[in-house]
């Protein structure tokens, strides 16, 4: 069986480009006991993968130069020597960016495409949905009437986080990069208000205007200047859910400084960073709620689906220029 794969050609300095990826052909061996042959259906591109392109120790291992990029993939079982999987099953796995691959059954999870479309298991019923669920429910813990401010609000995590906060009775304001995204989150995803950070003249004031009672929970997906402006609007005993810092992922030097700490001190702010895998022993609980709310129509969902294996690098790079609304997915 011939497969096409994408390897890390070189490590990016700053913003990645097409030159950091290389397409290769690979001939796959025959499968052996416990293995399955997989045909990729949907491949996820996620901001955290930028960190894996660097040669640094982190919670997710680095990609190796000349080795395939890998991440969340939904694939169809084409052939199986595993007792757990049959031909035509759809599975979720951490798999190489490849049209076909071979994997041990123990590393795969069967997905139920009668519950939701297959691609949803890379988004609302997968890692981003769980991130939103645990970030809001376990760290932010919004109470009725509290104000929740979410950066990266029109993305995979932000859209779900905002809706879950609404379900808890919060007043929810999103920050996103275009008027189109702001209208989308207000009109279709029940956000109470939205701020376009690209057109706001003084973001601190725009946040104050959209959050007349101040901010009780700031769900941070982006960091940088947006977060600086959010922090200036935090209430006494507010919480920061530190989920992501995408605005800093391509920096070659991370700015350091104590600028925001006095503010956190004087407002008695609780700041907690988290990685969704901290909650892996409770994923079933999270997925149960997400599937229930989705089934009841209480959670809405959208994806930006880019077609074609060859467009994987474009989709990944597009995360950093904001071309996606909701979860960015590549359909193979
Ligand atoms: P996403 O929001 O679907 O896609 C990325 C979005 O980030 C873009 O659409 C863009 O939207 C925004 N963005 C890109 N560069 C930016 C910049 N310089 N300043 C401000 N906004 C920028 O991605 P996601 O999967 O939902 O992830 C969101 C964040 O959560 C990321 O930081 C990610 O690393 C983090 N995350 C953390 C965990 C965890 O376990 N802690 C798990 C999943 C994701 P605009 O058009 O609005 O700028």
Write the layout of secondary structure elements.
Blueprint: E1 2-8, E2 21-27, E3 35-44, H1 48-52, E4 70-80, E5 90-96, E6 100-104, E7 109-110, H2 127-140, E8 147-151, H3 156-167, E9 171-176, H4 179-187, E10 193-196, H5 203-210, E11 215-220, H6 224-231, E12 234-242, H7 261-266, E13 270-273, H8 283-295, E14 303-307, H9 312-318, E15 327-331
Parallel strand pairs: 8-9, 8-11, 9-10, 11-12, 12-13, 14-15
Antiparallel strand pairs: 1-2, 3-4, 3-6, 3-15, 4-5, 5-7
Bound molecules: NADP nicotinamide-adenine-dinucleotide phosphate.
Q: What is the subunit organization of this protein? A: single chain
Bound molecules: NADP nicotinamide-adenine-dinucleotide phosphate
The named CATH superfamily of the largest domain: Medium-chain alcohol dehydrogenases, catalytic domain
* Helix percent band: 10-25%
What is the architecture of the largest domain at the second tier of CATH? Alpha-Beta Complex
Determine the strand fraction and express it as a percent band: 25-35%
Any idea of the CATH topology of the largest domain? Quinone Oxidoreductase, Chain A, domain 1
Using the coordinates above, name the CATH class of the largest domain: Alpha Beta
Number of strands: 15
**Anisotropy-based shape:** globular
Rg: 20 Å
Q: How would you classify the helix and strand content by structural class?
A: alpha/beta
**CA-to-CA gap between the ends?**
17 Å
Largest sheet: 7 strands, mixed
Could you tell me the mean pLDDT?
97
Tell me the series of helices and strands, N- to C-terminal: EEEHEEEEHEHEHEHEHEHEHEHE
Low-confidence stretches: none
